[in-house]
Design brief:
Blueprint (H helix, E strand, L loop, with lengths): L1 E2 L28 E2 L1 E2 L4 H11 L3 E5 L5 E6 H12 L15 H4 L13 H11 L3 E6 L2 E7 H11 L5
Parallel strand pairs: 1-2, 3-4
Antiparallel strand pairs: 4-5, 6-7
Length: 159
């Protein structure tokens, strides 16, 4: 199930974490919030804020994943706009689309990707979140925060 910038919701976000997670499927969020590549940046800002998240996968009209976009991308645009006009009025946000600010280089993982591989991926790439794609279908999303949760739950005290 997904939520999009068009406002269609499909239920609450669900994250099931197993006791000893070994693969991405053990910790990913299964209900993914997505945004259409032609949605306005204003709609994107509302979508992120309303759902309490900082980034989402971007889908084309045909459902293909075409990128990722985050609150950082909106702030980058805000910085550019502030130099041209009074940003406080948010003028011009409806003239930019998600496609204008998204990162088209899409890094994905599968639900069978190991947690160790995922940790290395996040560390080496600097990416903070990754869509989970199995057989070409978006089945979830995972983040560096998910890996941090595994570390926090499994770390043993020293001494």
């Amino acid at each position: 199930m997904t939520k999009t910038a068009t406002g269609r919701a499909s239920g609450t976000r669900r994250r099931t974490v197993t006791r000893n997670p070994r693969v991405v499927a053990d910790l990913m969020s299964r209900d993914v919030v997505t945004v259409a590549d032609d949605a306005s940046v204003r709609d994107l800002a509302r979508l992120l804020w309303t759902n309490g998240i900082s980034g989402v996968p971007v889908q084309a009209k045909d459902g293909r994943l075409v990128g990722m976009v985050s609150s950082h991308d909106i702030l980058w645009l805000a910085e550019r706009m502030e130099r041209k006009t009074d940003f406080c009025r948010w003028s011009g946000l409806d003239t930019y689309t998600v496609r204008d600010i998204m990162t088209p280089d899409l890094f994905t993982v599968t639900s069978s990707t190991s947690i160790d591989h995922l940790r290395m991926f996040f560390t080496q790439s600097g990416v903070q979140r990754a869509p989970v794609v199995d057989d070409g279908e978006l089945v979830g999303i995972t983040s560096a925060s998910d890996v941090l949760g595994v570390i926090a739950r499994t770390a043993r005290p020293v001494g």
